[in-house]
Description:
CATH superfamily of the largest domain: Tetracycline Repressor, domain 2
Distance between the termini: 89 Å
CATH class of the largest domain: Mainly Alpha
Amino acid sequence: MARPRNFDLDDVKERLMNTFWREGYARTSLPKLTAASGLLRGSLYAAFGQKDAMFSVALERYLDQLRVAIVSDAPGIDGLRYMLDAVVQITIDDPERRGCLLINAVPEARSLGIANRRAIDRGLAEMRLFIGAKLREAQETPSQKADLEPLVALVFAASISIRVLGRAGQDPRLLQDIADGAVAAVQQALQPTISTEFGP
């Protein structure tokens, strides 16, 4: 019979996530994980597996929290504005300026197992899909055939740059200007074409 756990699993997952987020994958050693979790090595391995598996748990938890923070029911451009404003807010609200765990992991992807590399790709693709859905909602009529992919890339790049520059300690005003500028560019790009032809 398996022995019951004598620790709060949810609390330990949160501690693991914060350790990987603060330190990065490569610099997160087992002693750091045991110290953060308060568990002995054997208990930590028994609950979560090897380091790569622990990172998988941390990344999944982070993405769950990120979805709650940036996704709303607001349609179209309002939904994009909410998302970008939320990205700015969670960036500047973090006193450690850790940036984004997902984005931080990209340069370290070769050190990760295939499952985690795929999880990173899925996380980034999910954000692009969300942006694309909001842009399609923002199109005023189904007959509009604007190529949305450049706008998806623009908003996606804005969200990435906010996190990267925020981690570098850049001024919050700059981060908000990036968000506002991306929304303004989308609004301008999706404006209905104004005919310049004059009637008789």
